[in-house]
Amino acid sequence: MQEKKLTSSKISLAPLVIEQLYKQAASYIDNARQTVYRVIDTQMVSAYWCIGRDIVQAEQNGHARAEYGSNLLSALSEKLTKKYGRGFSISTLRDTRQFYLIYFDHMPIHHALRGESEKQLNSRLGWIHYRALMRLDRPEARQFYEIEAEKNHWSGRELERQIASLLFDRLARSKDRDGIMRLACKGQEITKPEDTIKEPMVLEFLNLPESHRLVESELEEALINNLQHFLLELGKGFAFVARQKRLSLDGDHFYTDLVFYHVILKCYVIIDLKIRKLSHADLGQMLLYVNYFDREIIEKDDNPTIGLILCTDKSDAMVQYTLGDKTKQIFASKYQFHLPTEEELEAELRREIKEIKQKLDG
C-alpha cells in the first residue's frame, strides 16, 4: 500500500517538476539568445563603422566625384547583397559613410590600440540607436541623447521618440549656456523638483487630435491605458502609485487624478489634469492636495510633495502670484497632442521672456 501511495505521489508531482524545468530552461535559452543578439549587434556596428571608413577613404583617394561615389555605392551594394542578402542597400551604405564621418574619432569596440584614441563606440547602443543619433546636427544634442539612451536603457524606438519630441530642447529651454553644456556632458541630472518638469508635455502617443473634445476623466483613462508611454514622457524616477486617490477632510472628500512617487527625489508627485487654460482655482486646489499629503501621507524620510498641473494654456505670472513661496513645489505645464517643432519651442520661449519682462516693467 505504501509503495502504491509513493508511486501515485511521484506521478502527481511530475507535471510540476516538468513545468519548473521548462521555465528554467526557457530562461536560459532566452538569456543566451539576448546575449547573442547584443553581441551580433555590437559587432555589426563595428563592421558598419569600418565599411564607412573604407568608403570615405576610397572616395578621398582622388575619386571624390559625385558620379564616382554613386557608382561605387551601387556596385558595392550589388555585390554585398548578392553574397549576404538584404541589409546592404545603397541607403544603408550611405548611412555607414555618414556614421564614420560623425564618429571618425571613435574606434569600434575592441579595436582601439594602446596609445590610440581612447574614445570607443558605445557597446550598449545598437545600429538603430546610432542611425537615429547621427541624424542630429548639433553635437551637444547628440551627446545628450547618447548618454540618456544608455542610462535609461532606451530601445531604438524609445530613443527615436525622445528625439522627435525634442526632449533635449524642452529640458534646455530654461537653462543658461552652462546648464545646456551640463546636459550635453552628463545627461539629465535630477537634484531638485524643477529638474523633472518639461514644457510642453507631449502626449502624441494618445493619438488624439488637438481639436478632440475631451472630459478630464477620458484624458485620465487614456493616460492610464498608455501608462508605459506616459512614464517615458514623464522621465526617469517616476513610479505609478494611484489614480483618483481620495483625500478626506472634515467630512469632505477630494480626489487626486494621478499620484506617482519619484524614487530619486524621494517624494510623492500629484498630477492634476485640466482640459482648459489654468485658473487660480486650479492652483488653490493643488495647494490643498500638496499640503494634505505633506501633513497626512508622507513618512519622515520623504521629501515635500510635488504638485504638477497639466493644462492647455497658462499664465506664468498668475502661477507665481498665486503660489508665492510654493512655486518650488507646485508647477504647471502645458500639454499637446502632437510632436513639437523647434519653431514652436522658440515661439513659446519668446512668449515667456516677454511675459517676464512685462512683469518686471510693471
Number of helices: 13
Identify the strand order in the major beta sheet.
1-6-5-4-3-2
Largest sheet: 6 strands, mixed
Percent range for helical residues?
Answer: 55-70%
Judged by helices, strands and strand pairing, the structural class is: alpha/beta
- Taken from the alpha-carbon principal axes, the silhouette is globular
Termini separation:
98 Å
Topology:
Blueprint: H1 2-60, H2 66-84, H3 90-102, H4 127-133, H5 139-151, H6 156-164, H7 167-172, H8 177-186, E1 201-202, H9 216-225, H10 227-234, E2 238-249, E3 252-262, E4 267-273, H11 280-297, E5 306-311, H12 316-323, E6 330-336, H13 342-361
Parallel strand pairs: 1-6, 4-5, 5-6
Antiparallel strand pairs: 2-3, 3-4
Helix pairs in contact: 1-3, 5-8, 9-10, 11-12
